[in-house]
Amino acid sequence: MAKNSDKTNDTDNDEIKESEPKDKAIYVKVGDETRSLIDKYKDKGTTISDLVRNAVKCYDDFNSISPEIHAIIEKFKDENELDIAFIERAIKYYGDQKELDRDLWVRARDEMKMMLIGKTTFNQLIHAAEMPEESLQKPWRKNVAIDLILWYNEAKPLKSLTAEEIIKTVQKMWVVANYFHTIDVVKDSEDVFHVLFRHRQNKRYSSYWLGYFTELFMSEEMGFKCEVEGQPFDESISMVIKVGSKK
User: Fold this and answer.
1) Residues 202-239, buried b or exposed e (16+ Cβ, 10 A)?
2) What percent of the chain lies above the pLDDT cut of 70?
3) In this structure, are residues 237 and 209 in contact, taking their beta carbons and an 8 Å threshold?
4) Considering all CA atoms of the chain, what is the largest pairwise distance in Å, rounded to the nearest integer?
5) The whole model's pTM is what?
6) 3-state SS record for 218-236
């Protein structure tokens, strides 16, 4: 009987706990730092109830951010930088770009398929268009990719850049410029890369860029030797870059 009575009492206690009102006061011991923050806002007329409500909501909002966004924050924030400091910096950067109307370039690229093109490259393409279809060698040799590669890699010496760094630069910048809508890179082995360029032009366009990048990767300016094999197609270029020893 005693045991049954105990069980009954336990059940009654559980029911009492469950029926406790939702607005029951919450008491918690806080550290000196938290106490200072509370006092800071209390002095401005904010109640502790408001502080708790806003703090919990802010905590919930931040932890409701998708895992992908959390991963971006962790990837790009500086070492020892607080999350809120990074978010402030990112918002300021976004605002600066909007003020410069750089979103117009993104829209023009996506909606109008416009290309970001330099003066020298423009002149090369005009020259190539005026030449017979088999005469693309001259614009290949007047290659301005190196200037862009140096700019993207923050002026690191060209000969100190690895083939992989240069391939990644091409993969990034030639899509940003909208010369290609995608560039896929597969590292077949430590020194062999398969690069697939996709565009919406024609086979002559493919032939131009195949010669352009062959000239680039086999240039004497590079800090490595490599062999390049490639095939131009109507809307894509397949290249295999085999990297040799340092020069």
Assistant:
1) eeebbbbbbbbbbbbbeeeebebebebebebbeebbeb
2) 72
3) yes
4) 106
5) 0.56
6) CCCCCCEEEEEEEEECCCE
Rounded Cα distance between 54 and 21, Å, is 21
Rg of the Cα atoms in the chain: 31
pLDDT in tens, 181-221: 999 999 998 899 999 999 998 998 898 899 889 989 998 88
Backbone angles phi, psi at 193, to 5 degrees: -120, 135
Query: Of 144-148, 196-200, 220-224, where does mean pLDDT reach its minimum?
Result: 144-148
Across the chain, mean pLDDT equals 80
Do residues 195 and 126 touch, judged by C-beta distance below 8 A? Answer: no
- Are the C-beta atoms of 226 and 243 separated by less than 8 Å? yes
Say which DSSP state 241 is in. E
Q: What tokens does 11 get?
A: 């059940």
**Residue appearing with tokens 């029926």:** 19
Nearest to 55 by CA among 74, 79, 30: 30
Torsion angle in degrees (nearest 10) through CA of 148, 153, 157, 160: -120
Do residues 206 and 196 touch, judged by C-beta distance below 8 A?
A: no
At position 116, the amino acid (one-letter code) is: L
Q: Give pLDDT tens digits for 66-106.
A: 999 888 888 888 888 888 898 899 888 877 766 656 666 67
**Whole-number Å distance between alpha carbons of 99 and 225:** 44
The torsion angle over the Cα atoms of residues 18, 23, 29 and 33, rounded to 10 degrees, is 140
Kindly state the tokens that stand for 79: 């070492």
